Amino acid sequence: MAKREIDEQLKSLSLDMDEEIDDRNERLGRRLAPTHRAHQPMDPSHAIILAAFIIVGGIWGGKLFYDYIQEQRIKAALNDAGLYLQQAMRQAERDSQRTQAELRRRIAQEEEALRQQKAEQLAQAQSEQARVAQEKRFASAQCQFWWQQHEQHPTERTAQKKAEACTGRN
After folding, report:
1. Residue 42 DSSP code
2. Any idea what DSSP says for residue 38?
3. Are the C-beta atoms of 149 and 158 separated by less than 8 Å?
4. 118-127: long-range contacts at Cβ-Cβ below 8 A with a sequence spacing of 24 or more?
5. 164: exposed, middle or buried (C-beta count within 10 Å: 0-12, 13-18, 19+)?
6. Do 146 and 161 meet the contact criterion of CB atoms below 8 Å apart?
């Protein structure tokens, strides 16, 4: 029978842990904790709204971060392209300067060759004129006369007159 009584007592026994803790604290002289709970349970509609804010904020923040990364990539690509174009422009400028220097050198060479050619032509023309003039003097009647006189009667005077008439020297 004792066992049956114990079972009935256990069934009728209600254990309230909060009351037990409060009783223990009173016996030990501790201050009672407030009877209300620290956090009230969140209403499901508030939880849904909070979750929506978190999701939208995360997506928006992720999009901003992605856009920032893309912008940095674009800036880097544009900087690289700018550097490449700058180098290409410098190279083109150097090539242009080399080409201009080569062109100036060629023009100077051609001008020098043309000047030399004109000088040679002038010298040839002067030489030809001198030769023609000399032939005219040799073919002249005066030169022929003094030439024959000098060959037939060589004297200092005939030599001088021959030189004057045939070569034009005094």
Report:
1. P
2. S
3. yes
4. none
5. middle
6. yes
Tally the C-alpha atoms within 13 A of residue 36's C-alpha that lie toward its C-beta.
4
Of residues 110 and 169, more confidence is placed in 110
- Using the 8-state DSSP alphabet, how is residue 170 labeled? -
**Token match 């021959």: residue?**
162
Give the tokens for residue 46. Answer: 């508030």
The span from the CA of 168 to the CA of 143, in Å, is: 10
Q: Is the distance from CB of 145 to CB of 165 less than 8 angstroms? A: yes
The type of residue at 54 is I
**How is the chain split into domains, by residue range?**
92-132, 140-170
Mean pLDDT of the chain: 87
Mean pLDDT of the region 7-17: 69
- What is the CA angle 14-18-24, rounded to 5? 100
Q: How confident is the model at residue 58 (pLDDT cuts 50, 70, 90)?
A: very high
